[in-house]
Amino acid sequence: MEREHLVKAFDEELRTVTDRVVEMGARVERLFDAAVDALVDGDINRASNLVIEDAQIDALDAEVEEAAIHVIARRQPVAADLREIFSAVRIAADLERVGDLSKNIAKRAVLLGHDRPKPGTTTVLEDMAVFAKKQLHDVIDAYINGDSVKAEAVLNGDVELDTYYSACFRQLITYMMEDTRSITSCAHLLHVAKSVERVGDHATNIAEYVLFRVKGEIPRGRPKGADLEDVLARDLGKGA
Amino acid sequence: MEREHLVKAFDEELRTVTDRVVEMGARVERLFDAAVDALVDGDINRASNLVIEDAQIDALDAEVEEAAIHVIARRQPVAADLREIFSAVRIAADLERVGDLSKNIAKRAVLLGHDRPKPGTTTVLEDMAVFAKKQLHDVIDAYINGDSVKAEAVLNGDVELDTYYSACFRQLITYMMEDTRSITSCAHLLHVAKSVERVGDHATNIAEYVLFRVKGEIPRGRPKGADLEDVLARDLGKGA
């Protein structure tokens, strides 16, 4: 009975850690969606209100870490349990960054303010954001269900986001050349496009830790040579 | 004697972890320096050669994590030792990102290629990079020496980097408006400026974990309201 009690208490503590990560995931997803919507709709009020959401996500990240250290110190877990805790901490760190990026997108929406670029400027950016949202949603799903197939699919999807970024870069550069008055707003949008691309990078980092948790292999970085800059070089070489 | 032997073995394992982090720090510092130099000098060959350096840094990050999990599983450390290991893992993750950013700066140098902007375009960016290098160097020093005063100084220095970015943003926007043929190269430089600013953000993340290791307080995020976008809003409001 005593042993059973201990195991149960440990399981509950472990679940406190993973539940926090899942809660973070849900909040981060909502924040990213809302920030992109506020940017596209030019809704400055909504964008301003999103900034405080990020603080709550930061607090959850700190809670995950605190709970993880607590569990390790008290329960001295090994093998699969230790991997579970480790991946939770790394995933929380990535989610926290996605929260930061979303907050920064909201702040760029405020910066853009009434100096909005003409309609059509954000078409590629919007498609790109839809894809990034899907990557983020899928990887959180993969974490919740320990679904390594879905995690692999997220890893493989990242190159598509790089292609979107490259298309977005060329679209915005073209607008800047056509109308110099749009340069400042397009520069902000270029930055937002980069943030969206980075949300995708964090989704792949998370996918790697989902795989680590399931399979026990330490992620050693994605295959090199498929960086965003390589996609840009390919596309710009074709003539922007 | 047995206990003494165990303690010694544990200390050695712990040192394997922290030594790897210190080695990563030295390599990352060199890579960042070299990438910025290659960009400013327009040295495409040198920039191309830097890409492989980053793979070695990624491998070290994986080694830190592997060694950390190994030590936790075998030795079941608590309190200060556990903090030591935890901060090593988080710092290694930040250094790995700085390595990625440096590699991406090198790749943008290749993209810029012979389509270089006219002299003077990168003056603010160069000053900014010098400051970021100092932040990175100081925080690695603070980690090696467990120097919380230096770590605090790095935390306080980050706002200066945001101010540099804002100045750089305005300088590049001005060049773009003056000469539309410079738009593509200046867009790449804007992106490099953002990468340099992010190197600074990682330096502050590392500073927080140096403080965590020394003082035992989980970092709860920097004081909010001092984001890059806030500095931009202040400066652009004044009229770019």
Automatic annotation (TrEMBL), chains A, B:
Q: Which GO terms describe its biological process?
A: intracellular phosphate ion homeostasis; negative regulation of phosphate metabolic process; phosphate ion transport
| Residue spans crossing the bilayer | none
Q: Does the keyword Zinc-finger apply?
A: no
The answer to whether UniProt assigns keyword RNA-binding to this entry is: no
Q: Name the species this protein comes from.
A: Segnochrobactrum spirostomi
Tell me what this protein is called: Phosphate-specific transport system accessory protein PhoU
Q: What is its main location?
A: cytoplasm
Q: Where in the cell is it found?
A: Cytoplasm
| Taxonomic superkingdom | Bacteria
Q: Briefly state the protein's biological role.
A: Plays a role in the regulation of phosphate uptake.
